[in-house]
Amino acid sequence: MIELVLAFQDKDGQYAEHAGVVLASVFHNTSSPVNVHILHDETLNEDNKRRLVELATRFNHTINFYHITIPQDMLQVMAGVGSINAWTQACMYRLLLPALIPVDKIIYLDCDVLVNMDLLELWQVELGECYLGAIKDQGIMEVAHIISSKGLDPELYFNSGVIVFALNTIRSNVGWYEETLNFFRNFPDTTMPDQDALNVVFGRNYLPLDLRFNSFSITSQDHDFTNKIVHFAGVEKCWDAGSLGSELYRNYLNLTPWSPDEPQQPAEAAPSAHPAQAKKTNGKRKTASAKRLNLKRGVRRASRRKVLLKRSSRMKGRQTKISLISLPSLRLIRQITKR
């Protein structure tokens, strides 16, 4: 099973939709079961949480929600870093993953990517003794002097939008959390806080991955997004009208409960847990390139009606409550399963 994590704040209610589109792109193109972890704060409302659960249920995957409280010692060092306000505190959640999710390995994705390939390819990358696998930042040379001032090599500097974390390997380094705090104490002028910190703490022992696993849209010469994870890392995002990824974004949006064609439902209280994992189909799910993803509306509606009829039966069964504990102790979250 692929372990996948997304993290966001949702003050205007839009980022839950973007996260849903990322998940739809993963689910549509990935043949293996996916266990999703959503890191969020109080801004994720119950209606959007319900929609995320519904989306995972449609595709027979599981989803878990973690209401994050940043530990006090990290809040203290963050207070001196002005650039965090430009990114939101949610960018810091990925720095806490070794203390948050009790799995050996996990893929992290930003909410401004579209996964136009089978995510199993990335999941199967062998990290060996490396802390993580990541992709070189394709725009970093424009600010190479700033990166160098942090003691980092721009030629090796990786982007934090797509990362495969070897969480057990990181945990074996008992000083990882304190090293992270020390970075912010020493470099409060950092302009890319989470990314700089990850490069300082783990950059000496990471596995460089193929560019197609984190392909910047702004550097794409032919705008061919086939068999890639496309990252809209610039000012222009895939959800912006007229952007390079707008059509692809809309196609994946139409697979979600946020689709304009989706029947409107009254808001419900979201379950505090992920749905039971349903029986997996043996055949591979349909995979398609960006050019062949333009689904016919009639087929889409018929498929949606079919999965909605099955939804109630899939929701029955095991439920998982997420219980947060003190992160400075570096213990893991305890998952309590109820039947």
Describe the model.
It is a single chain. The chain has twelve helices and twelve strands. It has 339 residues and is an alpha/beta fold. The protein has a single domain, classed as Spore Coat Polysaccharide Biosynthesis Protein SpsA, Chain A (Alpha-Beta Complex), CATH 3.90.550. The strands form three sheets. The chain has a seven-stranded mixed β-sheet, with helices on both faces. It has a three-stranded mixed β-sheet with strand order 5-10-9. α3 (72-78) packs parallel to α9. The longest helix has 18 residues, at 297-314.
Brief sketch in words of this structure:
The chain has 339 residues and is of the alpha/beta class.
Measured by DSSP, the beta-strand proportion falls in 15-25%
**How many runs of DSSP E, i.e. beta strands?**
12
**H/E element sequence:** EHEHEHHHEEHEHEHHHEEEHHEE
Number of helices: 12
CATH architecture: Alpha-Beta Complex
Helical percentage: 25-40%
Mean pLDDT: 81
Low-confidence sequence ranges: 266-339
Question: And the CATH topology?
Answer: Spore Coat Polysaccharide Biosynthesis Protein SpsA, Chain A
Characterize the biggest β-sheet.
Answer: 7 strands, mixed
Query: Rg, please?
Result: 20 Å
The domain tally reads 1
Shape field: globular
Strand order of the largest sheet: 3-2-1-4-7-6-8
CATH superfamily, by name, is: Spore Coat Polysaccharide Biosynthesis Protein SpsA, Chain A
N-to-C span: 21 Å
Region (Disordered): 260-293
Organism: Paenibacillus forsythiae
Protein name: Lipopolysaccharide biosynthesis glycosyltransferase
Biased composition (Low complexity): 260-278
